[in-house]
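[09:14] KT: can someone run the structure on this one? pasting the chain below
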Amino acid sequence: MRIKTYAEIRQFCIDERLKGTLMPEIVKALAAMGVDGWSYDRVKNVTRACRNPDMPLTDKPRKSAEIKEKEGSTERKPKVERTESGYLIRYGKNKQIAATTEQIEHAFQLFCIAGLTMNAVALQMGWSRPHLRLHMIRYHSCQKP
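[09:31] RB: done, structure tokens below
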């Protein structure tokens, strides 16, 4: 059987791969038929499943491709509680921050009006930068327009 066109060679490679023939054996069969220039890489590229949607996967997927669910890996949103004196933000396991409305408004004024950076505001308020960020975001989201 003499194969002449690219489409015929491609179809031959796909058919052989579907039968379960290994790539090196397909390359040898092509060489025996007198087809030149078809290396292992070219046969591999032609028979890729992504380029042939109707071709089922013949190789098993790698184990590393499996998505494993990690326990406790999802991050919870902080819960905001309005108290008499201000806000209580619960985040993480047994972690919470409390701040009065005046403290948060003062932090907003330092950040927006005075033009201080978040790090400078956090230092002046006595909070860490992540705590300041939590306070500012939660306070701003709790305000009604």
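[09:33] KT: thanks! The CA atoms of residues 13 and 47 lie 7 Å apart.
[09:34] RB: yep, looked fine to me
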